[in-house]
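Handout, section B. The chain below has 248 residues.
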Amino acid sequence: MLLNVGRSRLLSLALCGAFLTSSTVVAYESQPYKWVSGTAPGQIFPLAPDIALDILESANCVKTPRPEPGDIVCQMEWTTDETPNQYTCAEMAGLFDVPLELIFTLNPSIEPDCGNLRPQTRYCVIGFLEPVRAWDGLCGPPHGNATCEGTDAQCCNAETWTCGDTDEDCADGTCYEGDCLGDVQYSTDGTCGFQHGDRLCAAKQGNCCSMDGNCGTGPDFCGKKICQSGDCKWKPEFSESGTLEVEL
């Protein structure tokens, strides 16, 4: 059984081989990509044409492919009307409240002036570029910045650079990225403050960020005119420009 990848939808994994074909013939924008149903409702993955038919198993079931890093993962489509124009890209972005740049990222064949949109054609309006995922359980900077998100254990432990799902793995100050606020907000390397992206200190890193941008605990980090954020024993003041003002 051959599947017309561009026009069919998998009704249910339980109904193996049963498909619903749309009565309206709608083209797909993303050559050389082809779109197939994903495992999550409304989610579709791109496939290169040369592997599009290889997703059929011997029992005529559709096997959802795992997207590769850099693939476009589209979560919602939108179909153009019969007369799209150079303003249609902005219309799509406004309609779905997404940045205009995302429309071009998700649909790489669209020209910068949006002048080559085709009528009655599906375009991706919500989605993302597939990141490097830590399917082997190794994450973070030592492992190509692989993310734990989307894997079985969704917190990247900055002490072991492995994915985990315990409270310790996901704790502020330990979790580098994933199902946590991450290193962009809570330091995992002991550096903090305005010198280091305004990151805060927590848990194992200490509860105070000193004026020199280091996390710690006690009077050397939390003391008056020593602490810039955290459990400070005084209230630091910042200027309108964001500069920390210290009276010496």
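Note. The first strand starts at residue 8 and ends at 10. Compare this with the example in section A.
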